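Homework help board

Subject: predicted structure for assignment chain

Our instructor gave us this sequence and asked us to write out the predicted structure in token form, then describe one feature. I got the tokens but I'm not sure how to describe them. Can anyone check?
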Amino acid sequence: MMPDLFGGKKGGSRIASVLDGPPTVRELKSYSQKCFQSWLRRREWLLRKVNRLEYTGSDRMTLKCTLSYDVSFLRFRDILGNAQSVHSRDRSRMLLPLDVMDDRPYMTNELESCWKQRMCLATRRETARFVTFLFFGFLVTRYEKTHINVFSNLNDSKAKEIYGSFLSDPAEGFDKNMFIALGCVDEIAFEKEEESALKEMAALEGVAVWLRKSTFVLLSVPVDETSRARIRFSYSTSRGGDGKKAARNWFDKFGITSSLVLLVPAVNRNDDDDLGTHMRLIVPTGMRVDHIIYKSNGKNISVDHDKSISVRWNGDVVSIDVSPLPSRPDFDALIYMSPKLAVFTVPAFVACLVSYIIGQFVLRWIVLAEKITQFPGQSVTPMASLIPAFVASYVIVAREHDMLSFTLGFRRSILGVGAVSSIIFSVFLTLGASDGVAGTGMRLGVFTYVALQLGLLLFFLFDIFRVGLWCRKMSSLNKWVALFVVIGVIIVWGAVCAYNIVMML
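My token output:
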């Protein structure tokens, strides 16, 4: 026979009813089903839930998540009754189970409601007490129409140990012994490894593990006459690495495709099957949304003709609303974003255009140097020296979103190369033209500078053209169009360079 699981005696001492203490057997019998029903029937009192995602300004890997809940306390109190409430010195309080999240580190930022400082997040002990009620409510509901009575072998000491197992990780084998001791699984059948007993044990252990590994958004709120309230819960979390590798590829890094891809996994999934999903993503300052792709089981899907899904976006926010439909498979949303053209690309294009024009002008003069007695190098050099200062004003940008700095990293680097080349060009032009003679070395140096500035010019022109494609929603043709545009850019660059070589010869 299995030894006594909990080590206590039946009929142990009763513990007073408090929100952060272990429940008694009498409390579990009276309130566990009500607590479980209040959780299952959240759609009746949780009228609306909106998830707002926003990148912090100083860290591109940290997301600020703000959850807004519209709660009907009239309906909640009708379901819960007087369960999970206790009278303190000032007023009665109760535990409000708003949500459940994966077990990972969260850093709470703020908590807002009509009660202000009178409302707070539940402690670990209060959460463990609520989970204990939830656990026994599940067992009672599961075996309601069977001969199994989970309270028949339960006393206050054993209830306290179960409460402690949800407060901290239990010893190995605790769950198996617990379900056998409660009569949920037949001990003899389990030892004989009968299939029914093994399946039942696996299902029950899965529930217990889920309760321990989940993070409940549980609030301690006053019990008053409030009929309806909006509660806002904000926390920070690190962006997962699942979409990081897929989001950053070589095409993204070199500006051929969108610079940033944000993966929102299972965007339509909600803990309540009959509660719709409302998500708001705040676009980082200086960024714009190119387009959104939806994937299910690794394949692209279309939601354009699904009236239950509404997707809208502008320069500031992406809004995704999904009506409740339990039969719909989960799908991921990939949000493609690029820097706004006016922030960097257009000024960089203008800077490279001016640099190229000056370089081409100088190269033309060098070609005619054999017929010109005095090369105007002293007048051209100051003009060339102004270019690096003009470019540097856009290379160094202060007080911008960290995500924008990250996406502009490669563009800013190549623009910096253009700025450095302008400085070298100015010095080279001054020294080479000091004697009024344009030799072969000087011609080759100016030609190299012109070819470099032309390449930068065409790159930023392509970037402007690419973003324009996304603006016109030509995402389906983007790969082929981008390929032909890249080929065209290379041809144009080669043709201009060939023309300059022929002109020099």
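Reply (TA_rk): Your tokens look well-formed. For the description, you could write something like this. The chain has a mean pLDDT of 76. That's the kind of observation they're looking for.
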